[in-house]
């Protein structure tokens, strides 16, 4: 078994990105909008700020009160859209329920969307056009490519169909000529399906959902799950059970997580570069 | 075997649509842009105009010279976008190679896109939001529902991954809780996969690609192929071979084709109604 070491790979690729950013006179700027004090969000934002700073990307944190009005958030997004210094705008999810998340996400200029969540960017992905790829699936592709794992002609099973992970990773693997099956909570006989996978991507949010009887010998297992169980982070697959069957496997934590942050920084630099080549 | 009779169903649903349109004081208006004289396109446009007229939708055909400039097509689209009388703008594909098809498709207002091909409409589909569904997959869903064919929990195999058929029908079936496998020309052992399908949708453009040894007993077979072989229209599946194995099967012609045209008219009325409720 070879560990898909997202921590190591992301550190190496972040360093490469830093060297590029060092050559820029003006640094890329990422503005993060954080609303309220969700502990997980605070921790994610801290991680993103720290990684950005290591790479040389300037971050501005707009930490808003959880009771802020829709109009005020709109006003902030509009001003960041207008501001030429701003390369990326990240709205940290989830946001309080009284706000219209869909409207706010649509309001962010799609040319300033390092998360790749904007409807236009996702439409372009759907149409196989050049786009900003969502950070997590982009990170997974980068990790698979780093380890030279073949994709074309492979049987891929994706468990989960969110538009943040399941759908875009399915499309990106399909665009690389894999045959892709998308499963979810309503799938029957899921074990029979996951057992056919050469590459199995799990993003269903259930701790240790994938057990050793659900995978075939030499599977490549990519675990996107980050579940908190008894103060510990646990993936959607039972790592200890599967590690001796898999040919490649991501750990949780330090697998897909750091690759997601790398992709976010990569996308921010991409947005910066495309702004400056206009 | 029960025939999925697209001709009969579309006639019934077009009549329902006509009754609705009859109640409108101002009729919905569909503008069709046809560039050049591709024989298949001429025939498709004729069919669309005829069906629209039966339903009571006004059509305007803009038949342009095949050497028309990009700027002139842009000017036409812009004026149709502005024109409040126009509910739907249909750019008949393919268009001559000197024109920038992607740019022109993006230029059509997504609120006037009865084909459901606009990047914003496809992005919304990707994000499971209310949208205008592409006409062919929408027609397939309508046909399956007309015959009360269960979708939730079923194993669906889609052969083809275009953004006109394969991708959107996959997403729409997934949103109805089917488990979906997407195959294509680079898929290995495709027969093993198609044999697992409860519902098999074929849109690969190869005459009689699906043979009886590739399907399981009682499959529901939806054939999107329209191939001209020796002056005859032939589907992507071998109808004669499979008709006794399938529980339901679409004929070619008179299966998915008329349902696509129905969906186009349905979408035009939808755009008309949403304009008038703003």
Automatic annotation (TrEMBL), chains A, B:
Stretches assigned to the Tetrahydrofolate dehydrogenase/cyclohydrolase catalytic domain: 4-115
GO MF, any single term: methenyltetrahydrofolate cyclohydrolase activity
UniProt entry tagged with the keyword Oxidoreductase: yes
Binding site for NADP(+): 160-162, 226
GO cellular component, as recorded: cytosol
Domain Tetrahydrofolate dehydrogenase/cyclohydrolase NAD(P)-binding per the UniProt entry, residue ranges: 134-274
Keywords for the protein's UniProt record, in alphabetical order: Amino-acid biosynthesis, Histidine biosynthesis, Hydrolase, Methionine biosynthesis, Multifunctional enzyme, NADP, One-carbon metabolism, Oxidoreductase, Purine biosynthesis
Enzyme Commission designation: 1.5.1.5, 3.5.4.9
Catalytic activity: (6R)-5,10-methenyltetrahydrofolate + H2O = (6R)-10-formyltetrahydrofolate + H(+); (6R)-5,10-methylene-5,6,7,8-tetrahydrofolate + NADP(+) = (6R)-5,10-methenyltetrahydrofolate + NADPH
UniProt pathway: One-carbon metabolism; tetrahydrofolate interconversion
Pfam name, any one: THF_DHG_CYH
PROSITE patterns xrefs: THF_DHG_CYH_2
Family matches, as InterPro entries: Aminoacid_DH-like_N_sf (IPR046346), NAD(P)-bd_dom_sf (IPR036291), THF_DH/CycHdrlase (IPR000672), THF_DH/CycHdrlase_cat_dom (IPR020630), THF_DH/CycHdrlase_CS (IPR020867), THF_DH/CycHdrlase_NAD-bd_dom (IPR020631)
The organism's place on the tree of life at top rank: Bacteria
Gene Ontology terms describing biological process: L-histidine biosynthetic process; methionine biosynthetic process; purine nucleotide biosynthetic process; tetrahydrofolate interconversion
Subunit structure: Homodimer.
Similarity annotation: Belongs to the tetrahydrofolate dehydrogenase/cyclohydrolase family.
Known role: Catalyzes the oxidation of 5,10-methylenetetrahydrofolate to 5,10-methenyltetrahydrofolate and then the hydrolysis of 5,10-methenyltetrahydrofolate to 10-formyltetrahydrofolate.
Name of the protein in question: Bifunctional protein FolD
């Amino acid at each position: 078994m070879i560990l898909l070491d997202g921590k190591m790979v992301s550190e190496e690729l972040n360093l490469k990105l830093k060297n590029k950013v060092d050559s820029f006179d003006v640094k890329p700027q990422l503005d993060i909008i954080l609303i309220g004090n969700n502990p997980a969000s605070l921790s994610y934002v801290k991680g993103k700020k720290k990684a950005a700073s290591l790479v040389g990307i300037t971050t501005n944190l707009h930490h808003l009160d959880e009771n802020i009005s829709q109009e005020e958030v709109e006003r902030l997004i509009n001003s960041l859209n207008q501001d030429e210094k701003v390369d990326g705008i990240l709205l940290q999810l989830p946001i309080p329920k009284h706000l219209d998340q869909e409207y706010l996400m649509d309001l962010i200029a799609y040319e300033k969307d390092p998360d790749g969540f904007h409807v236009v960017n996702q439409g372009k992905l759907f149409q196989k056009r050049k786009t900003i790829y969502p950070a997590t699936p982009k990170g997974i592709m980068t990790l698979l490519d780093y380890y030279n794992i073949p994709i074309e002609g492979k049987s891929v099973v994706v468990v989960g169909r969110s538009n943040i992970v399941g759908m875009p990773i399915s499309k990106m693997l399909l665009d690389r000529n894999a045959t892709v099956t998308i499963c979810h909570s309503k799938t029957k006989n899921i074990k029979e399906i996951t057992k056919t996978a050469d590459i199995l991507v799990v993003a269903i949010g259930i701790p240790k959902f994938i057990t050793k009887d659900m995978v075939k010998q030499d599977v490549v297992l990519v675990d996107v799950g980050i579940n908190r169980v008894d103060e510990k982070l646990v993936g959607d697959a039972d790592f200890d059970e599967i590690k001796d069957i898999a040919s490649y496997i991501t750990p949780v934590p330090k697998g897909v997580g750091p690759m997601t942050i790398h992709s976010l920084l990569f996308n921010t630099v991409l947005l910066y570069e495309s702004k400056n080549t206009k």
